[in-house]
């Protein structure tokens, strides 16, 4: 397994970036054979990596994303008897982060594997260059990480502000509806009060009319009896 020094590759990429648009580093992996890099890191150096693994499709002879493709990521401290500080299995696209506990060479390995129907793993010896892995590494660049996290936080804050704005709109709508309900209730109560007053007035008029008619009839009957 060849030893590849990332600083040399990073230097070449930096020189090319001066005349060409910056591109991610990518390499090919034979089947499920591990691909390793060696990076000398100072103590307390933060390393953040983003990777994308694509599988070769012999039908159209192109590299494509495959949901069943997994990537095992390991980081060993070669200066400390290959003490493993990272061991994680992710999907075909993901992120890994670690911090160097001590100064020295760190071996970063990527091992692709394909999940079979019965849940096992395919053995070594796949098609040559059957997996293309694109890798972006940020070494000691906490500002870039903070910038990414800040952009995500700002996006979340903006969404929260939008939700708060919608809640305020809903509150204003509810207050408007309550005001309309109160106005309608006042109008209903005023109308009912007028109806009650008019009914009582009518009853009073009818009562007075009935009393006058009864008095008139009594006087009439008395007069008729006397005559």
Describe this structure in words.
The protein is 43% helix and 31% strand. It is rod-shaped and about 140 Å long. The model is unreliable at 1-23 and 115-128 (pLDDT under 50). Strands 1, 3, 4, 7 and 9 form a five-stranded antiparallel β-sheet that branches. The chain has a four-stranded antiparallel β-sheet with strand order 2-8-5-6, with no helix packed on it. It contains two helices and nine strands. It is α+β, with helices and mostly antiparallel strands and 227 residues long.
β-strand percent reads: 25-35%
Rounded Rg:
43 Å
The profile of the biggest β sheet is:
5 strands, antiparallel
Topology pattern, helix = H, strand = E: HEEEEEEEEEH
Tell me the quaternary state: single chain
Shape: rod-shaped
- Unreliable runs, pLDDT <50, ≥5 residues? 1-23, 115-128
> How many β-strand stretches?
9
Structural class from helices and strands? Answer: alpha+beta
Count of alpha and pi helical runs: 2
What's the helical proportion of residues? 40-55%
Average pLDDT level: 78
Distance between the termini: 145 Å
